[in-house]
Amino acid sequence: MPAVVIVGAQWGDEGKGKATDLIADRIDYVVKFNGGNNAGHTVVIGDEKYALHLLPSGILTPGVTPVISNGVVIDPEVLMEELDALDARGIDVSKLVISSHAHVITQYHRTLDRVTERFLGKRQIGTTGRGIGPTYADKINRVGIRIQDIFDEGILRQKVEGALEQKNHLLVKIYNRRAIEVDEVVTELLSYADRLRPMVHDTALLLHQALEDDKVVLFEGGQATMLDVDHGTYPFVTSSNATSGGAATGSGIAPWRLSRVIGIIKAYTTRVGSGPFPTELEDESGEWLRQRGSEFGTTTGRPRRTGWYDAPIARYSARINGVTDFVLTKLDVLTGLEKIPVCVAYEVEGQRVEEIPWSQSDFHHAKPVYEYFPGWEEDISGARSFEDLPDKAQSYVLALEAMSGARMSAIGVGPSRDAIIQRHSLLD
Fold it and tell me: pLDDT at position 126, please?
């Protein structure tokens, strides 16, 4: 049975839960393999809306084992808040499994994230201020704290002392902030030990055994391709690998086990934070998309930048991730437009460029080359087959498919879980 990866194919917020829902009845495990509580999934079940920030969306599906693997950074306070909130709404959270190797976000990571971003001024990256980047930096610098350290007070104290010896100099002498006490951090982290202990396992072994037993394992990427630390619009990126390759390193399973890669892509484009965005709309069209699509961050509430569909980005994502299937979301948002622009190439220094330029400077200055497609007026939210869509909506989808590098296997036509059209199976 397959190991399936779901990744965002743009700058995030594409609606990855749609794909998860479509194959939920065949999934045994859902694995979050990167990022932290800097991204959110909004899942609608009937009249209920759930905003998940750190937990994998599979925690809402009965019978599925949700896993937070080693590639994730975990804020224990946020984790407990999310678990308590779901429990209060009658959701069973007892099956959650957490990697012992996952790194821990502490209060000094959050503090450093916020003060560093303010210090950058106009050069701000646009982080969420939740300590994600500093935690990954500590991981790479080999001074990080892992979940397993919370269960050994001696090791935990030693690691916190080592980290704060350096970080307090930075906070006090550079950023004019108060020093953080070692006892303060250690006491807080130890307070989570008893509750965390039953959840913590060797998740790499667990997932290996699951695949050996022919279980279906879904790897759910946070953020998206264009925010990948290596393959995104660096430095305006996240601090982890949000592309399909990150599923292997971020979970400890072998790359050859990944049999399907599902790319989630909106029928238009959005991004948050700073950085290049060729199709960005800074006029009434952009605000129309923002309001129609409810484009406000699940985690932060901040308004997203909006723009038209960008085919070169779709092709890039298909290539980098090895996308076998696209799930096109929010097609319904475009209803009512007389014509719909689609970016099919860029103009860079007077030359037409078909793919994303390798130079960040060129990409920053790239101007979109548009083709225009006729819009439709009909309400499509009730469509459940491709033939239910108006002819012009069908033509729009087929045009995007032809220029995006992979088949459009499913189409989202509304916010509810069942508001989706399946053209091709995502597993078979």
Answer: 58
The active-site residue out of 13, 75, 138, 325 is: 13
> What is the reported pLDDT for 86?
93
Q: How far is it, in rounded angstroms, from Cα 419 to Cα 320? A: 29
Q: pTM surpassing 0.70?
A: yes
The catalytic position among 21, 25, 41, 103 is 41
Contact between 411 and 328 (Cβ < 8 Å): yes
Query: Does 242 share its domain with 223?
Result: yes
- Is 428 an annotated catalytic residue? no
Give how far Cα 27 sits from Cα of 64, 202, 246, 426, Å: 7, 20, 20, 12
Co-location of 287 and 322 in the same domain:
yes
List, for residues 73-129, the tens digit of each pLDDT value: 999 999 999 999 999 999 999 999 999 999 999 999 999 988 887 766 666 555 667
b/e per residue, 131-141, with b = 16+ CB within 10 A? bbbbbbebbee
At 416 the pLDDT is 82
> Is 13 known to be catalytic?
yes
Q: Is the pLDDT of residue 41 over 80?
A: no
CATH number of the domain residue 208 falls in:
3.40.440.10
State the Cα torsion 286-119-10-57 to the nearest 10°: -110
Residue 97's pLDDT is 98
CATH number at residue 142: 1.10.300.10
Is the same domain home to 77 and 188?
no
- Dist CA 182 CA 156 (whole Å): 10
**Paired residues of 421 in beta bridges:** 411
217-232 per-position pLDDT tens digit: 999 998 899 999 999 9
Cβ atoms < 10 Å from Cβ of 336: 13
pLDDT at 44 exceeding the cut of 70: no
Q: Classify residue 292 by burial, with Cβ atoms within 10 Å: 0-12, 13-18, 19+.
A: middle
**Rg, the chain, Cα only:** 22
Residue 194 CA from chain centroid, whole number: 29
Can you give the residue range of the structural domain that contains 107? Answer: 103-197
User: Is the pLDDT score of 297 beyond 80?
Assistant: no
pLDDT of 186 above 90: yes
Q: Note whether 190 and 209 are same-domain residues.
A: no
Q: Which of 148, 166, 197 is the last residue of a domain?
A: 197
